[in-house]
Amino acid sequence: MRPATHIDPYKVELRILCGFELAAELRFCFDVLLDELDHARAQVARATKRLRELARNERHRPAAANLRSVSGMGPITATTYRLELPEPERFEHEG
Length: 95
Description:
Elements: H1 9-18, H2 24-56, H3 61-68, H4 75-84
Helix pairs in contact: 2-4, 3-4
């Protein structure tokens, strides 16, 4: 039996879009936008990888674990909050 492979829907849709015949000017603009999209996706992947590493870091692990106890809060969001608000107690509680 063959192992299941993951099909990236982005790549499938991109292949379809790239198959359209476009005027040269439009193709140029489209290709520039695709380059920007590829760069943005790479940056997000890079940031996500680093945030996952930081979530496991001894310095941030307790706070990130505490934040993850909130429903819907994953490791990336929890670590982002931890890094952006290292001292949340400085804010007054408006309960």
